[in-house]
Amino acid sequence: MLERLEIESFLVLADELHFGRMAERLHVSRARISQTIRSLERRIGAPLFERTSRTVRLTPLGRRLHAEVEPGYRRVERGVARAQAEARGIGGVLPVGYLGSAAGEFLMDAIRAFGRLHPDTEVQIHETQLSDLLGPLRTGRVDVLVTQFPVAESDLTRGPVVLRVPRMLAVPANHTLAKRHSVSLEDLARDRVFACSGDVPDYWQKHFAPARTPSGQPVRRGRSASTMQETLAMVGAGQGISPVGADVAARYTPRGVVYVPFTDAEPVEYGLVWRTSGETARVRAFVAAAAGLAALPEDAQPVGTGPEGAQAVGTGMEGAQAVGTGPEGAQAVGTEPEGARSLGTGMEATGVRGAGMMPAEPAASASAGDR
Asked: Model pTM greater than 0.85?
């Protein structure tokens, strides 16, 4: 294995072709340089330089070695330099992931807020999937993830809650529950509830689809699904029911699926998660910007339903973010300069009972994280 000084001495001497100037660049003596080059040539087994009293030049073997070694060594140098610069400051590249459409919309606002404070940082966006809930963080594909809570992992740091979305129950259109204007957690015992397949923590699974209702009634498990499309397709086919976030109901209404709001279920919470060992100044700055965007005013209700049925999620830099059901059944989701964006009304046309949400334009695919 070649030593770093040997490689660096070889490349610098090939550039300078002068022992004196090379010694000045590397801040070592000419004797040390000569010794290092001779050691390298012994390792290779042949001369790499032709030396005279007046000139130094590469041998044909030296030229070939230089052509193969120099590009790789320079890439290593640039990579180390970038890593050092990133560790010292905020500028650079920050890969951020999101799970689900509600998290994606919040992330867009967070990136804009972060960009105003740190315009020299490039944020790369990655959509993650429910079947690999925390994998992108652990593999380093993303440094920060906006995902659904709960997250309780020893190697990950959980940040603040940034978004709350009411929970609804997706049921077949011909199901007895589809005629109801609301459901309770006790109704989960009335049919099979779909499970999540893939690398999903057991505690996360139980949080969204508990094994028993609050009164102790067993909840039957249905087939496992790795994507939201699979889940809703099975619901529409009459094979079971599934709790989902109101953002799913607002955007995806497949044929044969009706969404009914819960009266007693806690909202779906989204928050920021990152590797504890990968926390940098850049990660901390992004988390601070996102938390500031979602900060609740002192008089807001962070969990639960407000006096008019709406759920306040934050005021932030761009305005209030609200997700919930108003007195007339309107659903508000998102952030606008003047407040929340209404997704419309029209209960019978949307397949949504008691919420009155108009579906968005059909998407090419629904994220598996939209639960």
From this structure: no
